[in-house]
Amino acid sequence: MKFGIVGYKGRMGNEVKLLFEEKGHEFVWGYDKDGEYFSQTPELIIDFSLPEVLEKTIEFVKNFKVPLIIGTTGLSEEQLQSLKLLSQEIPIVQSYNFSIGIQLFLKVVDLLKEYIDGWDIEIVEAHHRFKKDKPSGTAKMIKECLEKEVPISSLRLGNVPGDHILYLANLGEVLTISHRALSRRAFADGVYKSANFILNKENGFYIFEDVMFEN
Amino acid sequence: MKFGIVGYKGRMGNEVKLLFEEKGHEFVWGYDKDGEYFSQTPELIIDFSLPEVLEKTIEFVKNFKVPLIIGTTGLSEEQLQSLKLLSQEIPIVQSYNFSIGIQLFLKVVDLLKEYIDGWDIEIVEAHHRFKKDKPSGTAKMIKECLEKEVPISSLRLGNVPGDHILYLANLGEVLTISHRALSRRAFADGVYKSANFILNKENGFYIFEDVMFEN
Amino acid sequence: MKFGIVGYKGRMGNEVKLLFEEKGHEFVWGYDKDGEYFSQTPELIIDFSLPEVLEKTIEFVKNFKVPLIIGTTGLSEEQLQSLKLLSQEIPIVQSYNFSIGIQLFLKVVDLLKEYIDGWDIEIVEAHHRFKKDKPSGTAKMIKECLEKEVPISSLRLGNVPGDHILYLANLGEVLTISHRALSRRAFADGVYKSANFILNKENGFYIFEDVMFEN
Amino acid sequence: MKFGIVGYKGRMGNEVKLLFEEKGHEFVWGYDKDGEYFSQTPELIIDFSLPEVLEKTIEFVKNFKVPLIIGTTGLSEEQLQSLKLLSQEIPIVQSYNFSIGIQLFLKVVDLLKEYIDGWDIEIVEAHHRFKKDKPSGTAKMIKECLEKEVPISSLRLGNVPGDHILYLANLGEVLTISHRALSRRAFADGVYKSANFILNKENGFYIFEDVMFEN
User: Fold this and answer.
1) Under the cellular component aspect of Gene Ontology, which terms does the record hold (chains A, B, C, D) (predicted)?
2) What is d(CA A93, CA A192) in angstroms, rounded to the nearest whole number?
3) Average per-residue pLDDT in chain D?
């Protein structure tokens, strides 16, 4: 496919570009703070930039009339609304976390939660020392998915990209689900999956869970 | 409930007895190599003994007309057939592994297997140094469930009751499912779950997976 | 060797008895709340009982004139003093924790602590849900050994006998030391090691660290 | 300090450059396949390049009369000899693995090995799917350090930079040492440590173990 990226010089944009190229696809259009790069019309646009760029992204997408995958974080409620409006004209995948493994983790939690009445549950997350929030957003997602009060222990360790562990124990055994992110590559893979999902979809607003689990 | 146990003096039979009593139930009947113990008619019978005792167990169960939970290992094909025949008269739960956690593990594998095309998969199992077979039967069950050629690494370590780890990795992340048995208690819990399942069931032959996941 | 046990019917006393017998040694004398068992004079006495029994133990040991290994917990300062006095007449090993692995763990921490300036350190301990104190005494020992303020996360999980994990991380790597107790057997092994240590020792008061690391 | 790098555009050279600059030091000289960069005379030279460049490096170091830290892999026996000869004129640190954590790991193994007679030992290593050799060189170093026949299980998982786990188990407990590399940063830290070590050293040939553990 021929793809375009808003924020193609950023860390995540660049990671996505490299992965798509590795898979044999062609980077034909890009936009970054120092301007536009154009060689051909893209078949879809991926946006990993900043909330203030969204208006520009919407403009581009409308011109090209192509699907959008957007992973920009920190969008306002109005911005999400304008994306939903836009999704009447083109198919959109929006998510704050494109990790396939975390989606699978949550799916597993969703499966297990009805069988663990009376079990002890503990969540542990480990992240690099520079992370300021405690606990991590993903740990909170796991807890919400369990629909229970669950203690979360947060470890801050060197440069660890992100570990999440869920312990489930009855009196005879311990079942553990854990996820370890190795790099931004984990998220680029999820974007690639989304690209294959969105290309022939009808207009509409999709989330990454749809990409993973819908048919 | 009032329960009876064939093999109530054995290690597993005793563990079951203790757990049921802890939950407030009453041991009213037992059979072991030195004879029969009778105080009242049981509402169900649990058998953790030896294949050569099966005939006796069938006789008891027919007399009492109560459900049977049987975890005796090493039954012959004929013995399993005679249990199936018996299940036309009473409800039976039969399994070689009553661990709830392992059932959940397999359920998780079954869920995940359709999302991990192209991922690397590794199974590691650790057991006490006295275990003679390699890899463990449970590791083989996990592999079969994956329906793929998966390497299994077997560690033999001191007195470890039984660990199983499944690693799933794409290029950006590692998802891990692991199970650690602490003691025979893990299996007694599964027997207790089976007891609650079987008490009001229609005649039929059930396996532990039915107990866990059927309605 | 011919050994005696104070508290031989208790959980720990019985574990010690079984292990020593397995190693080919002979249980020749015992004392428990229902009285004394005597077949021969022991070559050493092991005490895993209660503080209120200590006076009786001292009396026995003086009569037999044999070494003492004592693992009774909760001794008062006076009781420890009377043991030290007694150690002028016979050799004594006293400890609240006879786990060989934990001693090795602490030895490792002692080695590592001078190389980890600027590293992030986290301790995690997991124990059964019935444990009331948080964090565990062993986790506190690890922290003290590090001579630093280190966060300790305590997980309460089913029936886990006792896990301790020490994470050490700089910006490029994570080094982890962990210990997992499987059963009381871990402690019985340490008592056995102490028995071999004490048999030909001069009078004196020894701790388990001496058994492990002195020549 | 003012430092120079042979191979400063390579992945490892660049990582070293970034780390030293982050610590406030100045990159004043460099050499790479497209030529020399010179702004000032360096106080020491670091070489992470290729064996065929060694002759050039020796020439530079002799001219500048400054210490050398060399991490180039695949040096021939003759090349190591010529470095030893050179070390009569300048101090040199040479190593194929500048990971501080792995050095500590080996130190720990060296400490533990005399206390684990009769224990079960297992080594597990996990690396990315592109790694061709099995087992890893580091796993072999751990095994050699133990001076015993120890089974090594090798897992090949996605993009894992490198995990090493050593399990030690007696019948009551499991002691585990594990190391997880997060990135090349782990090695750059070791180079930095070597730089501080070498600056005021006498002429001589040092290895990374000297840097870590000598006074």
Assistant:
1) cytosol
2) 11
3) 94
Tokens of C49: 């009982």
- Which residues in chain D have their CB less than 8 angstroms from residue A159's CB? 182-183, 185
Chain B residues with CB inside 8 Å of A122's CB?
Answer: none
Q: What residues of chain D lie within 8 A of the CB of B160, using their CB?
A: 169, 174
Closest approach of C159 to chain B, Cα-based (Å): 7
Instruction: For chain B, say whether D142 makes contact (Cβ under 8 Å).
Output: no
Kindly state whether residues A7 and A53 are assigned to the same domain.
yes
Give start and end residues of each alpha helix (H) in chain D. 11-22, 54-64, 77-86, 100-112, 137-146, 185-198, 208-213
Which residues does A113 contact at the CB level (< 8 Å), separation at least 6?
A: A145, A146, A147, A148
CA distance D153 to chain B (A): 6
Which of B45, B43, B16 lies closest to B30 in space, CA to CA? Answer: B45
Pair D62, D134 in one domain:
no
Task: For residue C140, indicate whether it is catalytic.
Answer: no
User: E strands of A39-196, at which residues?
Assistant: 44-47, 68-70, 91-94, 120-127, 152-156, 163-169, 173-181
For chain A, which chains pass the contact test of at least 3 CB pairs under 8 Å? B, C, D
Determine the Cα–Cα distance for residues C170 and D95; give it in Å rounded to an integer: 20
Cβ–Cβ below 8 Å for B173 and A184: no
Neighbouring C-beta atoms of residue D74, cutoff 10 Å: 9
Structure tokens at A200: 């022939």
Q: What are the φ/ψ torsions at residue C156 (nearest 5 degrees)?
A: -115, 110
The verdict on A7 and A40 lying in the same domain is: yes
Closest CB from A158, A159, A182 relative to D160:
A182
Residue C207 pLDDT level (bands cut at 50, 70, 90): very high
Same domain for B117 and B161, yes or no, is: yes
Same domain for A117 and A151, yes or no, is yes
Residues A80 and A118 in one domain: no
Residue span of the structural domain in which B64 resides: 2-98+185-213
The answer on pLDDT for C215 being more than 70 is no
Name the domain count of chain A. 2
Same domain, C110 and C33: no
What's the CATH number where D174 sits?
3.30.360.10
Largest pairwise CA distance in chain B: 63
What is the rounded distance in angstroms from the CA atom of residue C81 to the CA atom of residue C97? Answer: 19
Residue by residue, what is the 3-state secondary structure of A138-175?
HHHHHHHHHCCCCCEEEEECCCCCCEEEEEEECCCEEE
Whole-number Å distance between alpha carbons of A108 and C77: 53
Q: Is residue B148 among the annotated active site residues? A: no
Which comes out higher in pLDDT, residue D16 or A183? D16
Q: A146 pLDDT exceeds 80?
A: yes
Question: What is the side-by-side order of every strand in the sheet holding A152-156?
Answer: A152-156, A120-127, A163-169, A173-181, B173-181, B163-169, B120-127, B152-156
Q: What are phi and psi of D5, to 5 degrees?
A: -135, 130
Q: Consult the annotation and say whether A97 binds a ligand.
A: yes
Q: Are D72 and D8 found together in one domain? A: yes
Residue B130 contacts C where some CB pair is shorter than 8 Å: no
DSSP class of C201 = P
Cis peptide before B135 (omega within 30 of 0): yes
CATH code for the domain of A12: 3.40.50.720
ipTM score over 0.85, yes or no: no
pLDDT at A125 over 80: yes
Between CA A164 and CA A152 the distance in angstroms is: 10
| Interchain proximity C185–B159, CB inside 8 Å | yes
